[in-house]
Automatic annotation (TrEMBL), chains A, B:
KW Nucleotide-binding (keyword) present: yes
Key words of the record: ATP-binding, Ligase, Nucleotide-binding, Purine biosynthesis
Complex formation: Homodimer.
One annotated GO molecular function: metal ion binding
Transmembrane segments annotated in the record for this chain: none
Protein name, as recorded: N5-carboxyaminoimidazole ribonucleotide synthase
UniProt-listed Enzyme Commission number(s): 6.3.4.18
Pfam family, one: PurK_C
Gene Ontology cellular component list: cytosol
Function: Catalyzes the ATP-dependent conversion of 5-aminoimidazole ribonucleotide (AIR) and HCO(3)- to N5-carboxyaminoimidazole ribonucleotide (N5-CAIR).
PANTHER family, per database record: PHOSPHORIBOSYLAMINOIMIDAZOLE CARBOXYLASE, PURINE BIOSYNTHESIS PROTEIN 6/7, PUR6/7
Length: 378, 378
């Protein structure tokens, strides 16, 4: 089968690597250059989206910030999974919050604000602190403001309204209760065409400067896992979703509140490449291609370290058992996700040792906060 | 780094999939069409071998039956690993037997025969039964004759000499003692530029009609593993070998006799993709690119089923835990290796169950002898 992925980044690349053994071929539509390319070799197929859509059996997406005209064109092909609505919801904080409420999945109180008066109303009804988030194009902590006291409201609103003026007409701001969470966790799962669902074990995530830095697959979290699975089932059923979907949660004293969802494979699920029987990339392709969802159980203890804005990865890491580099082959740029490193081991104690051995080889300046995060998470 | 592989078949394809996460890019030189292509996408780079050699950092091979002029051209580039000599030895039974003797590695008694008189001399000095093997182009059991009694010598020689007349001038016949083996096993290992060696656990192999049908990774074979590792170290040191090399053995009552060697990744090591920390394809690339050899230890119990001459693989196999299809995306042809299926599990008992579950889904007619072999090997 031929799959067309909207977006030609590392997620499409890893889908192509995961799909090849099953005979699932992946092309990517680069939304910026409007070209169809191979996501691994970047071979240009000299096709536009219309030709790419005719050529493929299934179209899917590796990100959610996609112009509506492209989504509509894909939807019209009848081949789009999880489909335009799911992608649109994932890309618009207003729709996402509506979905969470309509599916009755616990999430932080919120209000859409358009004016400074709206903001004061939100302060009154939700309370402080608040987090203000842009509805569109929010990504890796961009487009977010925190409001702690009423005294700061005018200043924050000045920043927000200046941001709104520079944004598209459809942009908006969602004011949300700030959640005093114990930790951030996420669940990745896949739902098949037949409605069957398999979810991976929960992942605990550490963000540094708003970007995911470290993920560790959790075990012995039965009670949390049940909540996460329940939320996954409710949300995907509401959307009649097909494919992999990720849900990020705040863990507040053992209760999970959804922070956000991503209608796609997700950075916090990259450890599944080594840590699970079938990885998220293969399972997404299986789902959208109508194959059975593969086993999502752990085959080893697993963690993932993101490589952000550096290509300073010493060859010495290849000497370490259970350490697997995944390089995206992109030009270096500050803050850019350049690759990730999966670490696997028979059990958590050995995983901790192997992660420590890896961190010894990495330059601390390139991985700020990682040592402390590894101490905290393992 | 850019690697050029001689041969554009499934082994080059799987190298490209294994290398991509490390940022190791693989192109393939198709020895038949004299084109440089991408082994996964088959994109034609419009290069000849000379241009491909300039463009790459390392050249290696996925098979050993390569014309001498091509080997010489690669050798002259200074980038060829394991190099022309190792490939030539792997492709010529006479040289292979000489190597085994000079490295003092146990193997079956042999004699090169060119005439019927030579054959009778071989019968006298080695004894019967004998196996006659073509020195060149022997592959998957082709070019082999078995001689059981002196009475059959004239008939067998008639067949052999007719074969020789149709062959190239450099062709020859090696007469070898027939070995009454208990089982066939193989070892795959990698040797780095620095001479460091890591070998995978031994694999037990079942051949059907001369073609590998089933491989099972062995555990609890310390004594055999030592012999295999010893042979691997001696042979690769003698050749100053860099890369993955496979050795096939006869197990004769706990003593290993080398049957043949392959200077490349090998079909009996395909289970390492799921069963070992680092698979043979990645380790070959690591070795030839000068990176550290990765951990060759098992991460699960593992077996591999070859898919020969059929594309009748029901989707139902994807429902099975620990079952991983690797499809080569080739046109179907009788006797052709179309793909393989790896089966993994926590332990041998579970592996046996999972393999049985897989065999239930496969059409027996497409996998002759496999059910009995699975019974025997697990």
């Amino acid at each position: 089968m031929q799959v067309l992925v909207l977006g030609a980044g590392q997620l499409a690349r890893m889908m192509s690597l995961a799909g090849a053994p099953l005979g699932l071929k992946v092309k990517a539509y680069d939304v910026r250059s409007h070209t169809v390319v191979h996501p691994l070799t970047l071979e240009n197929y000299q096709q536009d989206l219309a030709a790419g859509l005719i050529d493929c059996d299934v179209v899917t997406a590796e990100f959610e910030h996609i112009p509506q005209d492209i989504l509509s064109q894909c939807q019209a092909s009848g081949k789009f999974r999880p489909g335009a609505e799911a992608i649109r919801i994932g890309g618009d904080r207003r729709l996402e919050k509506q979905l969470l409420d309509s599916a009755d999945v616990p999430n932080a109180k919120y209000q859409v604000v358009s004016t400074e008066a709206d903001l004061h109303q939100a302060i009154a009804s939700i309370g402080l602190p608040l987090v203000l988030k842009s509805a569109l194009e929010g990504y890796d902590g961009k487009g977010q403001w925190r409001l702690k006291t009423t005294a700061d409201a005018a200043q924050v609103w000045a920043e927000v309204s200046s941001f709104l003026q520079e944004s598209s007409a459809n942009q908006a701001i969602v004011a949300e209760a700030w959640i005093p969470f114990d930790r951030e966790v996420s669940v990745i799962g896949a739902r098949g065409k037949d409605g069957s669902v398999k979810v991976y074990p929960l992942t605990q995530n550490h963000h540094e400067n708003g970007i995911l830095s470290l993920s560790v697959a959790l075990t012995d979290t039965e009670q949390l896992q049940q909540q996460a699975t329940h939320a996954f089932e409710k949300l995907t059923k509401t959307l009649d979703y097909v494919g992999v979907l990720a849900i990020e949660f705040f863990d507040v004293d053992g209760k999970l509140l959804v922070n956000e969802i991503a209608p796609r494979v997700h950075n916090s699920g990259h450890w599944t490449q080594q840590g699970a029987d079938v990885c998220q990339f293969e399972n997404h392709l299986r789902a959208v291609c109508g194959l059975a969802i593969g086993n999502t159980q752990l085959v080893s203890a697993a963690a993932m370290v993101n490589v952000i804005g550096t290509d300073n990865i010493p060859n010495s890491i290849h000497q370490l058992d259970g350490v697997h580099l995944h390089w995206y082959d992109k030009d270096k740029r500050a803050g850019r996700k350049m690759g990730h490193i999966n670490v696997c081991a028979e059990d958590k104690a050995e995983l901790k040792k192997r992660l420590a051995a890896l961190l010894k080889q990495l330059d601390e300046a390139d991985f700020p906060g990682l040592h402390q995060a590894a101490q905290a998470l393992l």
